[in-house]
Each structure stands twice: as structure tokens, then as C-alpha cells.
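Protocol step 4 of 5: obtain the predicted structure for the target chain.
Materials: sequence only (see below). No template structures provided, no constraints applied. The aim of this step is simply to have a reference model before the mutagenesis design in step 5. Sequence pasted as it appears in the construct record:
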Amino acid sequence: MRLHKGSQAALLLLMHAAGTVVAAVDFSQCLNDIVQNANVTQNLAGLLNGDGDPVSDLSDATSISYSMCTSHCGTGQEPFQWSVFSQEFSAWLLPNLALISQLPFGAQYRLDNLMSAILTVGSPTLAGYSLFITLLNSRWINRQFDQLVDYPNSRFALSILSSLQQSPLRLHPDRVRLPSLIILPKNNSWWKCFAEFVDYTHTWSIASATSIAWVIVAYILTVANSLSNVYANVQSNGEATGSMWLWLIPIVVGWLQLSPKCDFNRLQAAYDRADRHSMHTGTADGRAGMFPASSRRALAITAKEEDVMSPDELLTPPVFNYSRSLRWASTAHTIFMVFKVASEKAHIHLPVCGSDWVESSINMDSDSTKVIETIQDTDDKNRRGSLQDDPMYYTQPHRVQSLSSHWAPGVFTRMAIASCASLALQWGTVGAAFLVGWFTPTTGMGCRTFGYLLYGVISTLVWMMLLMSSILAHYSAADPRRVSLSTRVALAFSHILRWTGKLLAILNFFLAIMACIFQYSSFYDRCYCNSSVFSRRGAAYAVIIETTAQAAQAKAAWIGALVLACTSASVFLGILNLLLDTVPS
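Step 4 output (C-alpha cells):
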């Protein structure tokens, strides 16, 4: 009987798995056999103490050389123990997998939500960067409006801009439309309604609080248990993997506190509802004070794929904020500048229509003799008219558009700060896992330590690729027709970096999961991994029995790693909370 090729492959995999089970190694028994044989032959070659030095007394033999380990014990792993695996998996990994569900999603399609979860786990550096750059952008635009703008609807505009960092914000190319949207009193209801409609909250719930509490309590209890008994299952202990995942708590808590508006359908519905509330924009038709409604909107929150340089800009889950932060900052700065110009003209009492300024008498002092007026109380008559009536109002927006930079002020400073914060969180937690693996006997870089290091390196590499991709895409957006060679080359490299970065993120996602599973299932508990061959090379040896000194050293390393990981997560979350009071409320 001939087997199908797929059946043959499956059979080979089953035979390999069966062979692995058969070849399971009991290292303690193997050491006893080697010691008994050495006692008979009086040949102590290959028998070592805990420091890897040759022994002269068999009672000091607690380790064996890598070559002796493979020749006498084989290349297999310790037997799989379901009780150990289930306990470690449920204590260290399962709570974190459940916590992923508390991340903000909201994409139009489920596949994009799945990709956002994979990107977050595949690159915590990118997740931390997107969170921090969102916070810094909100803080920046809030300070801009607070210091320089006092104009009707400016507070609504600030709230809208801060809320729409998860949307591909776009301005109409006609430079008259945006000033008319801002200046005309007929558009007051649009600003007010849109600000209210997008002011929904994605924040704490019983489910999110329970998930976070579960992770924290499980982490504390399992850490206390592992530190109380260092000798038990030292090689399959999940202390390192727990530290590796600790970045997830500040990321989830940070997004819950920022409450990003990322529900695609809800945002679109809010925009459409506001659009029905008298949005009057467009070029004047020649009659004073008449601004016909236009189906082409001055400010849009959606775009087609051909209108953006990176498709990630269209995805509303906030982990993709890295891709649109530059475009958002440029758009927000342009809107701010138009508000600033309008505010300055109102301060010098220059109306749109060019006639005399109409004083507002809404607020009067106690003796009713002095008018107390703010720009927010400006009479609507001063804001009515055609933009062509007064050259100052017509030409100023052109000047604003020409002077407004494609790269918003301070954008690279904010990017640098967000990068430092996310890198500190990533390497504080991964570095803690690395320390645990390094100081677990046999000390040095073995399979476990290399896995943690590889996870951190790929995470950082994914962040670098996707960040550079967003910079190149924004550079290309300055030439949307792609006339110049530099624009086409930059856009091509942007696509390549984005595709490669996402592919690496997918691989890193599975690496994080498999590193934990290999740890709990004793897959790493084999001669090659236990001997730290990566760093010791020819001098590699496997510790079979941990001495008291080695256990004490491992315990001290675990405590240090715990402090490092918790400090990194706490500092990241602390800085975020310190800056939260400067974002629009």
C-alpha cells in the first residue's frame, strides 16, 4: 500500500515524536551511572564540580562535560511532566494571554484586530512607542491651543484632534474650506456635536480590572513560591517568562487610561451625525455671507487606500498610531495655525466682512458700565461674510498653508522621547528574563537565555523597521503624484520595511509563545541547552545537581530580575500618569 506524501510526512513526525519520548533522559540517574563507572575504572575524566573544574573526589562531582553528557546521557530531553507543565502554563502564561483581550481594538475587519494583537506581542517596543507618542501628541496639541488660541470652537477642535489620533485625518486640498469651517458661525453646531459624539470612553471595566488583577496576583504568588523553593524544577521554572511578559500590564493600563477612540464604526457614525448638523463649508459663490454646503468635507476622518502612503494609517487599533502620528501632527498643526490666525484677528477686532467690529455685551460687570468681552464671546456678526470680502482673511490661510511645515514642530523630539520610554520598558522586562536565564545553572548563555535575547532583539528590530517605514511614507506624502525619483524610492523602501517588519512580528509572536512552552515542557532540559554551549563553547558543561551556592546565586539573580522588571514597568506607568494631566479632558 502506497501512502500519500502528506501521510508520509505525518508518519515521520509521529515517529520523531515517539523517538523523542523514548529518548527521554533522566540526568540524575545518568550522573549516578557515570559516577559508579568512574568508581570502578578510577577514570574521573569529564566529571566536574559546580564551577566546571575537574574533580579529584567523586563526592564533589555534580556536573559533567558537554561531550560526556551527549555520549553517556544522549541528546534527548528530560521526561515531559504534565503536572509541572500545566502548573507553570496556568500560572505564568495563561493570565497574560487572557490580558491581551483587554487591549483596544476596534478595526473595521477582524483580521486587522488580530494583526494588532500580534504586533503588540511581537513587538512590545512598538506597542509602547505607539502608546507614548499618542500621549505626547495629545499633550503637545493641548499646550499649543492653551497658550495661543482663544477662539470660538477651539476647545471642541482640541478635543476632536486629540480623539482622532486613531483615524487617518485629512484636510481638503482647497485652502479656503478649512478656514470657512473654523470661522463661520454656521459651523458651530458641527464642532460641538462632533466633539460630543466622539467623547465616548473606552476605559476601565470589571473585565479589564479583573484581568489585570489576575495577572498581578498570579505573578506575585508564583514569584513567592518559586523563590521559596529554588531547587524545585529549576530548569522549567517560569520566573524568566513571567518577567518577559511583564511589559503587558503597563501597556494595557496605559491604553485604558488614555481611552483611545478607535472603534471604526462608532467614529464613522459620529462623523456622519455631526455632518448632518449644518456643516457649511466651501468656496463662496459671490454673494456676501453665502457658503453653500459641499459634499466634499474640509476635514475627513477616513480615506481610501490609494489616498495614503501606508495602509496601516487606515487601521484604527491604536498600536498602528506609529504609522499616522506624523501625518496627524502635520494636520493638527495646520488646523491650529488657522485657529491661531483667526484668534489674532479677533484680538485686533478685524471682522471677516471688513466692516466695523460688533462688540459683544454678553457679560457685564456689576455696575453695567463696562463690557467684559473674551474672544470666545465674539459676536457672530464678526464671523459672517465671504472670505473674498477681506483680503486679509483670504490671503492669510494661503500664508498659513505655505508656512506650515510638512513636519510638525517638535515631532522628532516627541518621537525620540517615546522611543526611549518604549525601549526602557522592553529591555527592562526582557533584560530581567535574560538575567534569570544567565544565572540559572549552568551559568551563561544557553537556549533559554538566547530565546529571551532573540525576542528582545526582534521586537526592537520590528519597531525600527516600522518606524522608519512611517517616516519614509510621510516623506513620500509631500509628493502625492510621485513625480520625483526620491519619492518613488522612499515609498518602495517604506513598503519593504513594513512588510518585513510585520513578518518578523508574526515570527516573534510565535517565538514568545514557544519559548514559554519549551520552558515549561522541559524541552530545553537537554545536554545542549543545559551546558550553555552558546557562551562556553568548548568549555561547556552541564550542572546535574545544583549546589547550595548555585541555588543562592540563582535566587539572588531572580530577585534582582524581579526588581528590574517591576521597576521598568512601574516607571513607564508612572511617567505616563505624570503626563496624563496635560492631555485634553
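Step 4 remarks: The first helix runs from residue 5 to 22. The radius of gyration is 31 Å.
Proceed to step 5.
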